[in-house]
Amino acid sequence: QIVQFTGRYETEYVNAVNAGINIWSDRYTPINECNIVINLINDESVEGDQGAKDVLIGEAKFLRALFYHDLARTVGYEPGREVNGFNLSAILRTEPTLGSANADDRPRATNLEVYEQIEEDLLDAIQRLPEVGAGTSAVARANKTAAELLLARVYLYWGRNTEAADYAQRAIAGDGSDLVDAADYVESWDDAAFNFHPESVFESDLQVPDWSSVDGANNSLHSLLMNNTSGSQFIITASDELVQVIESEPSDVRSGLLNTENLGQEFAKWQGNKGTLPFQENIPILRLSEGYLIAAEALGPGAGDVFLNTFRAARGLAGGVSATVDNVLREKRIEYMAEGHRWYDLKRLGRDIPKPAAADVDPVPYENFRILPRLPQSEIELSDDILVQNPNYN
User: Fold this and answer.
1) Gene3D superfamilies recorded for this chain (predicted)?
2) Which position has the higher pLDDT, 355 or 206?
3) For the segment 53-67, what is each residue's pLDDT rounded down to a tens digit?
4) pLDDT at 235 > cutoff 90
5) pTM above 0.85, yes or no
6) Fewest C-beta in 10 Å: which of 105, 220, 283, 393?
7) How does pLDDT run across 245-302, given as a tens digit for each residue?
């Protein structure tokens, strides 16, 4: 919930019309860069070691899949979860756009077409990428375990639970890395002690130039969520409801990532102490813990229990818990607090979006048009209406 009203994120907080997540423009530049790399490396005139070329193609396909899944889960519904039959998703581009000469207006692909392209990219990337150790500096680049885990996530969103469980277990097996011990969990988020989170299989390795401007003070997670560095924004804090969920099991070590003594219920997950520059931190994108929780949900009560309870033990919690969807969602809500998973988990399951009592607004029904964002109107107009806007934004 918002702890300090500065004008930022206030419309998003109450899900006002036109305040939806909008990454439409942000993802196509890196997608095109991936297309350029793939096209160039596949050119027979390009010399080089074939093994190295395979890895570069695998990295580009992994990243393209990651960016397309971000787009697909944000701007459209998941396959099988459509509202009123609306199934449009992102625009698919797998060839490079090098200039206006080969730029063209295209309609949006269906959600199924986009998911099939993501699946194709990841299956190919898995065959090309190396296995690396979780928590090592190598996870700053795409790797086999990361591709397997991302594919497991994609299958879970797609409703293909058998495949989701399969690839989650492959990612868990990976290089044999384990979950962090409960006693070490809180410290594992200390960037000064661990440059890379010990459970990370893919992590954004932010360097000084990334946060050397006002971006560091304005947009880093440390700045937005904590209040112990001069210049911090400190806008967002844990909701009362989240704190209650965490405190319902007193042995949960993740409670150590909340500071309820200062102003608000401050997240202590993002320390911003990677280097000498304030606010600098790495951002884990894929962690081993997600593999356990995907396997638990996909397999369900019975077969999935061992994955859920293995995960719970690593967070200081008792076993004997059934792997129901609600029990898995409870763990994900705590595990990924302030990491941006919750909204997407509720959306992929077709559930309403609850709001904190402090927001004083009603939940957002899944059938409400605000679940999807408005696409940039300039893009609609430039396409001569080839590009279809999301429902009820016309």
Assistant:
1) 1.25.40.390
2) 355
3) 999 999 999 999 999
4) no
5) yes
6) 105
7) 999 999 999 999 988 776 566 788 887 777 767 777 888 999 999 999 999 999 999 9
Question: Which residues, 6+ apart, have CB-to-CB distance to 359 below 8 Å?
Answer: 1, 2, 13, 14
CA distances from 311 to 181, 217, 307 (A): 10, 34, 6
pLDDT band at 21 (very low <50, low <70, confident <90, very high): confident
Max intra-chain CA distance, the chain: 63
Best CA proximity match to 337, nearest among 225, 233, 204, 250: 225
Burial of 286 (0-12, 13-18, 19+ CB in 10 A): buried
d(CA 394, CA 381): 12
Q: Which amino acid is at 365?
A: P
What backbone torsions phi and psi does residue 150 show, to the nearest 5 degrees?
-65, -40
Distance CA 112, CA 221 (A): 33
Q: How far apart are CA 274 and CA 306, in angstroms?
A: 35
Contact 34, 92 (CB under 8 A): no
Classify 259 as helix, strand or coil: strand
Dist CA 99 CA 217 (whole Å): 35
The token duo for 135 is 């928590």
Tokens of 61: 């396909």
If one counts every other C-beta atom within 10 angstroms of the C-beta of residue 128, the result is 20
Name all contacts of 357-364 with Cβ < 8 Å and 24+ positions apart: 357/240, 357/241, 358/1, 358/2, 358/239, 358/240, 359/1, 359/2, 359/13, 359/14, 361/14, 361/15, 364/15
